[in-house]
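Hi W.,

Here's what went into the run:
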Amino acid sequence: MIDIEVFIKTFIVLALFGTAGVGLYGVVAKPHATKKIISLTILGDTVNALAILLGYRYPGGIPPVYTGQPPNEFVGRAVDPLPQALVLTAIVIGMAVNLLIIYIALQTYRLYGTLDTRLIKKLRG
Amino acid sequence: MSGVRKVASAVALLAIVAALSLGAAAGGMGPFFDGIRSLGAFYLSTAPPQIAELVLGPSYRGLSSYSPEVVTSIVWDYRGLDTYFETAVFFLAIIGAVAIYRGIEEPVLRRPASGLSPIVRAVTKFLIPINIAVAASIALHGHLTPGGGFQAGAALAVAPIIVIVVFSRRYLLERGVTKLKALFFRSAGLIGIALVVLIPVIWSVISGEWAWVMQNQWKPGAEAFSYPAYLGGALISGSIWFLNLFEFLAVSFGFTILFLLISIDEDTVRSCMIRGGEECDRY
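Here's what came out:
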């Protein structure tokens, strides 16, 4: 008899690892800069989701905002606030850094007329 | 790509997933789905003052951040220096993008901006004030309810990009949302953050008592300085409220600059699509 809860939990974690691997593969192996940027956002979002999952409590997790519960219930049931605090800054900073990368890519395209790294590599002068 | 490289990539991909799974199964990432780490439990039991008083007794105030929102207390109190330097990264990213686009002047308007259909424009005119109100609420209640400066800044940054898509970039510029003004408000937010962080130190130099950088409530060893936890009877959690407000300004106007610079004027796109020409090649 398969425990369906364990199966779903394992499946979620493995799917996140797989998505992170695909993102890493795209950054390394795809020659076009646009696809590299898309892969980078996939990788970043997957790592954020994994961090949130690490702090999650499955049966009976409540948000880490105190609303007047008994203290034992709050500390005993609330999800881990630390990954959430790290991820919320990482999302906004990641968006700013992604925009900077997009600016650089756009400027590269306007100057060289291509974003294919195989062609950019051959440019001289 | 040759066949050997394809196989090697697939094997590497599977090896990464297998290695991560092995690490997670061996407990390298801590417990999944049940229980929290002791650091998280410490934050949960000290950030809200009511719980800290019960857990730690009368000495609780030196460890509490006086905020029922534990995530925001971690962001701006317990791990405040992390967030301070994250803001520095944000500042550098935006300054880098602005520096790449220096000297690219805004094109001159030839005819009034038209935008999408009247229905979309009317709906957007209702939605934008709601968006701004929600963002302000997220920022100003960030120490009480889920939210804070970063989330509110990202929520408000949606407004300029919707206006650019529905109306045009020219509409935003005509209503006074220019790059220079956005840079001014972003810098004001950053200076505000730096001031709130340094006020304990300035106070320490003036009064001769001890105080830490980024101190919110009094800490053991620096009892003399403390931001007010309540203002006129309302809980503002000391420096957290001010830092949320300034980060809100910095993030929202920082993204506004980037969206203003990266978008292309409607007239330019239209004339390029109809006529084409030398100056259109760079788009």
